[in-house]
Amino acid sequence: MDKPKCNCGVFGIYGSKDSSLAAYYGLHALQHRGQEAAGIVSSSVNEKGRKIFNIHKDFGLVSEVFTQKDIFNDLLKGSSAIGHNRYSTTGASDSEKNIQPFVVNYRLGNLAIAHNGNLTNAKELRAKLVNDGAIFQTTSDTEVILHLIARSKLDDQIEQIKEALLQVEGAYSIVLLTDDKLIAARDPNGFRPLCLGKFHDAFIVTSETCALDINSAEYIRDIEPGEVVIIDDDSIKSNKVKSCSLSENKNSVKHCIFEFIYFSRPDSRIFGSNVDKLRRKLGKVLAQKHPVIDKDGDKVIVISVPDSSNTAAIGFQTQLVKQGIPSRFEIGLIRSHYIGRTFILPGQQRREVGVRIKFNTVKGVLENKTIVIVDDSIVRGTTSKQLIKLLRDANPKEIHMRISSPPIISPCYYGMDFPSPEELIANKFQRNIEEIKKYLEVDSLEYLTIDEMLEAMVDHKPENFCTACFSGNYPIKVDMGITKDIYDN
Prior knowledge:
alpha+beta, Glutamine Phosphoribosylpyrophosphate, subunit 1, domain 1, Rossmann fold, 2 domains, seven-stranded antiparallel sheet, six-stranded antiparallel sheet, 17 helices, 24 strands
């Protein structure tokens, strides 16, 4: 589908006899953050009393990678584990070597890592490490962190990790597993979410709270930007790591606002707020600033593009009612959830058939009605155009489109995957909304402005969000040479 690609999901658990099974459930809850591959690493003791790491990972969805229940008892034994759902934001997506978690054994023992985000200085660091004799096994920026840890001259593993993190720039929410510890770390800008939870005597670190809920675990708090949390048998300790970024904003919080708009599940709590609450608020602000009224005084029918814009559409319709505009929220598009990843799509009709395979209209709801279709974003516009064509076949009176975010004009270097700037519809039509409206063939089109979007972020300071994909203003220095052919998240 024509949407930004989700980044990745990470999960770590320490102190549970069913650690790998909990990781499996957690990754299932985080499936929306990455659908290309999945992996779990667990730590156990072998017959000789030595700590060993067990690993299973492969391409596919979580349910496809972990198909046998015995795998959790026979292979992935141990009281601690980390897991990763992968979408490659950069690098080769078809290389098995790039599937996380990564595992190494070096002078201080075993070490495994799972990473969500992108390191903006990975190219520079990798070149330096290669010149110093390092041999890389993957095309992943995550492997840079492992090399920095392994090549450290320090004798304390935690200090090695902190030293490595002082050298990297960009976005990272990571979990690391050692022979006797679970470690979580988040970059000083806090681009990507990461939280701490508890399940009986076990502690969990994960990208979103929905991965706690599926395990019946209690949410404790977010891992703070720049924080390193160390969990072992004795305690939980917290350390702070400063940024080495050259940016003026190197010590400021810059949460990815697209996590609230699209990426995170609405039932999750991230960055200290419920996603559902802020997504509804985006819809309400959208209705306040850009309402739709039926020309004949009839009820406006508000529909969403399921599933990501459901909550914003509810907020939009609720606000229309508060403003005295007759309206009704309806299920106007039905989405199929049973499309395989290898579904055959004929080349000539690929886009149109792809949309009709995934969506169908409820014609009785739409016929002779003024429709407002609420969506969270438009990227290339190809899917939106086909959806409008689909809706036109239901013979509505008018079709209006409202977007709960601003036009996307720039790529992301902090863990999202957008098309190139030339492919973005806002750039293709030189940010002329009237021209985009004509291309989509809707009766009206309105986006939130950046200020309107930030207005919806209640309980947060507007300056604490990264809006680079909408503004082109990057909060920290980026290497514009990073592409999918060089590094992988």
